[in-house]
Design goal:
- It is a single chain.
- The chain is mainly beta.
- The protein is built from one helix and nine strands, in the order αβββββββββ.
- The chain has a single domain, classed as Immunoglobulin-like (Sandwich), CATH 2.60.40.
- Helix content is about 10%, strand content about 40%.
Amino acid sequence: MKRNVLLWLTVLALLLALPATYAEVLQQPLRKDGLMIYYGVLPAKLVAPGDLSVADTHMTPGGARGAGSHHVVIALFDEATGERLPNATVRASVQPLGGATEEKPLEPMQIAGTVTFGNFFRMDADMPYVIHLRIRRPGGASADVEVALPYRHPSR
């Protein structure tokens, strides 16, 4: 337990430090339609196989290993109350400039007792990407929130 908390605190520190290295990263949190959205992208090799607690086992780093695999992670909060939204449904698509789009659900994950959403995507080229998010709030009371996040990882 203590190891997991330390690991995820390290991951959080990396996520907070990484945006400073990218010219195209939006200021966080991104605010849209009553949501606050925090996001990050990190190489899959930094995510240890046993460190994710997910409901669906297809979102495992074992099948996503490789130099070009990255983990997209987001955290959602209600803008009015500041409360985390652990029961949202999130889909993401990652599109490289001029390339094919890869789309999948972002699975809820337990990290240090809180819920974030994530999945693994191929992002092996040194080029701009757009990460499109479609977020459905719990209860389905309002329309989906859609956002496009620019991303470019540093040269190797």
